[in-house]
Design a protein that fits this description.
314 residues; 8-stranded parallel beta barrel
Length: 314
């Protein structure tokens, strides 16, 4: 496993990180989830990403218990706020920032998180209010650094323009061979301002593993059959997308790697990406994906892959 510096922070994060969306505390049985977490650490993964809204606290609670036997300084822990937690609790107001960080820390059984992220932008709260509240929780030692997820370039720039507040060090956008929108504005802006990308869905909800086909039904144990995951993967199960993915398989074969490893290595070719977040329901998935770190792939193969994927990503 190789590691990269996370923006203008002193955090060193593994190129592959383990996420918990739609998995831990939800669709994956606890013993199997713990096996995936153990496999991640065995592979050198030191970066764990979650959010308060994942299972409305269930994912954080699982991690809080599962991580108890490990030294707190042996891993980098990230969570998020913004999503609907019930009872009117949502958004990025000062009240919610303070309420949700305390609730997350309690579920995670820790005194601090290494990275606290705004899950989405909150148009109903003045940005200055959000940034000041985040600054105060950093000063209080409850979060070491702050980040955001899926903010537009204009929103990011507005945050950078606010004086005397904590600085963002990370951006968490969707990014894959099938979804390259961050390359337009977000990545260039972040590069100029000491912000790294932590990308989610680098395998397009598993489609870039190659396990889905135009001609056959989705596997029974796949996300496409999951009650919580089917809605998110639906857009990637279109015929044009699946045919493009089939056309990528020979390129991965020529590189001597699996399609999943090829696709993760493509994401990591971008130096502004600090880590690619994977989801896994089985330890062997973690092991296969972790092996994408440090791969050396011929850039000509990546260029061929981009030519195949880009016109069919929608």
């Amino acid at each position: 496993m190789r590691y990269r510096k996370l923006g203008a922070s002193d955090l060193s994060v593994s190129e592959i990180s383990l996420g918990s969306w739609l998995t831990y505390g939800l669709d994956v049985e606890a013993r199997q989830a713990k096996a995936c977490l153990d496999a991640a650490f065995a592979c050198g993964i030191n970066f764990i990403d979650t959010a308060n809204v994942y299972g409305r606290g269930a994912a954080e609670a699982f991690l809080g218990e599962a991580l108890q036997t490990r030294p707190r300084d042996s891993y980098v822990l990230a969570t998020k706020l913004w999503g609907d937690m019930g009872g009117g609790d949502r958004g990025l107001s000062r009240t919610q920032v303070f309420k949700q960080i305390d609730a997350s820390l309690k579920r995670l059984r820790t005194d601090y998180v290494d990275l606290y992220q705004c899950h989405r932008y909150d148009p109903d709260t003045p940005l200055e209010e959000t940034m000041q509240a985040l600054t105060e929780i950093v000063a209080a030692g409850k979060a070491r650094y702050i980040g955001f997820s899926e903010w537009s370039a204009d929103q990011i720039a507005s945050a950078f323009a606010i004086p005397d507040v904590a600085r963002f060090v990370s951006s968490q956008p969707q990014y894959s061979l099938l979804w390259r929108e961050p390359e337009k504005d977000v990545i260039p802006l972040c590069k100029r301002n000491g912000v790294s990308q932590i990308v989610w869905s680098p395998l397009a909800q598993g489609v870039l593993t190659g396990k889905y086909s135009v001609d056959t039904p989705p596997p029974q144990d796949s996300r496409a059959h999951s009650a919580s995951g089917a809605a998110f993967i639906e857009r990637w199960l279109r015929g044009g997308v699946l045919r493009a993915v089939d056309a990528l398989k020979p390129l991965a074969g020529r590189a001597g790697v699996s399609l999943a490893q090829f696709s993760l290595a493509w994401v990591l070719r971008e130096e502004n990406v600090a880590s690619a977040i994977i989801g896994a329901s089985r330890p062997e998935q973690v092991e296969e994906n972790a092996a994408a770190s440090g791969l050396s792939i011929d850039p000509a193969l990546f260029a061929e892959a981009e030519a195949i994927a880009t016109p069919r990503r929608g």
